[in-house]
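tool_log.txt
---
The assistant was asked to compare two proteins side by side. It first ran the structure predictor on the initial sequence, then on the second. Raw inputs and outputs are pasted verbatim so the downstream comparison step can read them without reformatting.
(1)
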Amino acid sequence: MDVLIVCVDCLHWEGNFYFIPFHFYFHFLIKLLTFAVMSEKNAKVVLSGKRFQIMIDRLCQELIENYELFDNTCLIGIQTKGVYLANRIYHRLTTNFGIPKMEYGKLDITFYRDDFRTTDKPLKPNTTEINFLVESKKVILVDDVAYTGRTIQAALTGLNYYGRPSKVELLTLVDRRFNRHVPITTDYIGMTVDTVDAYVKVEWAETTGTDQVLLYS
């Protein structure tokens, strides 16, 4: 295996040397360069402020049109960023729109991903909080961005452990439909970003202090 010899104590002539697998170093270098390039670019704000809130309200209204009182329906947010959107949807439906309390869960998909055995990075799973079965229920699955579709694929795999739902629909704030790796379709879309190379990031007030969608091109 190719190795990179790294001196960790250049102050001593004898030195201390560790052998590091080259693919670990290469992966770290790519991440570092990507971060440096992204930091130099100016992010374009494509959605923020009142328009951000209006979009969430519109998504709620679309759900109400199709589900009315949400009988035999549950809402599940995908950890972690999908949960931020799911929290907003759930709060608005039950508070602003007067929808009766529905079953609401949070699903971690770390060990359901098709690449979790091949990653070199340490895995940091989040908690799954689903204290009900989805058997024969209608499930509204929520994530912030639909990109390759692999996160959604993993979520569908995870749902199988809680029963066989009668129907699953997907709600996302941003849909990047030109970047799919698997045949996943979004049913409720806040906005569509039709770009192949750009990077889309959703920021939430809970973590950054501001609700906004950023586009790095």
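(2)
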Amino acid sequence: MTPHKRWPLAATLCSCLVLSGFACDSKKSPPTATPQSAETPAPATAKPSVPEAPPLPSDISTVKAKELLDGHGGYLHLDVRTIEEFVAGHVPGSLNIPVLVINETTGQREPNEDFVRVVSANIPKRSKVLVGCRSGSRAKLAQQLMIESGYGTTSRVLGGFVGKRDASGALIEPSWSSLGYPSENGDGGDAGYVAMRARSIAPSNP
């Protein structure tokens, strides 16, 4: 090989080596990105619990009873007076199940043996029941019978529909009537005692 031709050959070899090294570098895999640590999610904030409504006291005033009945709490008013008293006037929307009935022979009031059965057949145990009568005495008896049969939310309406009076006749406990609250007459239809007692009697087997 002649001297003047060695230089181009050497240059060619150097160029090949440079290009070969560049190609190798270009085939290297790109650097792997360092994974970032995932942020720890913030703990869920517990929702504040809604406090339950306090239980009703054993006795409430007529004013409180009207407030509950006018609200949207699903309260029922159970009138435990006789059918005759109920027909003459009662709290609108009341149910009528007498706790005492008139004995046709003696003309005296006596316990209604069907009271608990009729109540159980027409009023669910979880109902919120306000129990009223003429002045409050019969309502107390009815309330006790209902509690013994499993009713947990009952309250007697003091004063009842007519009002409680002392020996002189003076009103000592305001009533539905004395406060001028609206009332209605009649037997109550499906909410009356005759209809509810009929529903409480199981049909006879054929």
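---
observation on (2): Helices lie at 6-26, 62-70, 83-88, 115-122, 137-148, 193-200. The longest helix spans residues 6-26.
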